[in-house]
Amino acid sequence: LSASMYTEIQQERPDGGNILTHPDYIDRNPDLIKPKKLLNPVKASKSHQELHRELLMNHKRGLGVESKPELQRVLEHRRRDLLIKQKKEEEEAKKLQCPFEKELLKRHQRLDQLEKEQEKQEDHAPEFIKVKENLRRTSTVTGDEKAA
């Protein structure tokens, strides 16, 4: 059955049956709905059309495709810097994960807390104790100067 249909198509077409130039639906039944060419969704999109228009304008002006607008270059540079900074922070976090580093960090924080507490205690000390300490310092300095 299919072989006889193929021979009929070949007999109807004297040019050898080039499908692209003479499709089946033109020669056959005129009552059939003829298919329409499908639209490419990429080419139909607004962003693609705008990009294509921009590329054509840049080509007419003589600008290369490699040359980017200044704003785009700056934004890409910032993104690159941000990624590098994030990678460095991740590496530092990994370094701090070893137990020795953790202990050092804890000791450093404890020492900072002790220093802050001492400063607070000195700030709350009565005024006459502060003045007395200052007098002792000045009297030892003047006594040393007299001996010399």
Automatic annotation (TrEMBL):
InterPro entries, alphabetized: FAM107
Coiled-coil annotated spans: none
Biased composition regions of type Basic and acidic residues, renumbered to the chain: 112-136
Positions of the UniProt region annotated as Disordered: 1-21, 112-148
One GO BP annotation of this record: actin filament bundle assembly
Major localization class: other
GO molecular function annotation: actin binding
Subcellular location: Cell junction, Focal adhesion; Cell membrane; Cell projection; Cytoplasm, Cytoskeleton, Stress fiber
Keywords for this protein: Actin-binding, Cell cycle, Cell junction, Cell membrane, Cell projection, Coiled coil, Cytoplasm, Cytoskeleton, Growth regulation, Membrane, Nucleus, Stress response, Synapse
Gene Ontology CC annotations of this record: focal adhesion; neuron projection; nucleus; plasma membrane; stress fiber; synapse
Entry function: Stress-inducible actin-binding protein that plays a role in synaptic and cognitive functions by modulating actin filamentous (F-actin) dynamics. Mediates polymerization of globular actin to F-actin. Also binds to, stabilizes and bundles F-actin. Involved in synaptic function by regulating neurite outgrowth in an actin-dependent manner and for the acquisition of hippocampus-dependent cognitive function, such as learning and long-term memory.
UniProt protein name: Actin-associated protein FAM107A
Name of the gene this protein is made from: Fam107a
